[in-house]
Each structure stands twice: as structure tokens, then as C-alpha cells.
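seq as requested:
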Amino acid sequence: MEIKDIKANSGNIDVVLHVVEKEAPRTFEKFGKKGRVCNAQVKDKSGQMKLTLWNEDIDKVNIGDKIHLQNGWCSEFKGEKQLSTGKFGKIEIVEKAAGQNPGEVLSNDPEVFAPPEETDDETTPVDEEEFIE
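C-alpha cells:
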């Protein structure tokens, strides 16, 4: 399936998309339960549309990721179609964006990767007056 084939108020949507934008998450409370929601823009070769991310999916999905929405739902709000996982769908990360490896450090500063300098076990006293502005 492609974005151009998605109809509003339909389910069982199975589509592979690229995440091109992601807004800051918002918190909400409904029926006494707290949650988070975030909108993202996704695209494929046929078009672009909004994807609503809920709770744990917010942290899972990042800009540049290639995702697979399985058993998704398309609603319509203010004349705009919006995808989501709905009650029964799920999002799988097919390919993480470059530079999204947790723990990976990106820097063009050679000092970041230099081994720590050897120091004496004794500490050098610091004059507190040096830090007064």
C-alpha cells in the first residue's frame, strides 16, 4: 500500500514510510490516565501525510527512520488525513536514521576521542579568588 491509496476512516493499513518531521511531544490526561502524543510527517514515493505517535512509539521513532506501520488506522481531522496505530496496529523500525545509534558519539573535535591525560594522585589546591567575578 502507498500513501495515495489510503482512505480516511479506514483500517488494516500496512505501509512502509520515511519519517521527515517530528514535533515535540505533548502530555494529556483522559479518563484519569496520563499519556503522551506527538505528530510526525511521513512520506513515501506517492505522497506525504501526518502520523500520530502515542506514548512509547514517540521515543521509538525518529526523523530519518524508515518505519513499517502494520494494521494502522487512518482518521480525518479538519479535512486532513492522519495515520496512527489505532487500537490494534504497531510500528516497526525497518531502518534507523544515520547517526541514531544509541551511545554513538559524533564529533569533529579530536580532543573528544583523545585518551585522558595522566595526572598525579595528589590534587592541586585551587585559589577560590580565581573564580570570583
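Helices lie at 56-60.
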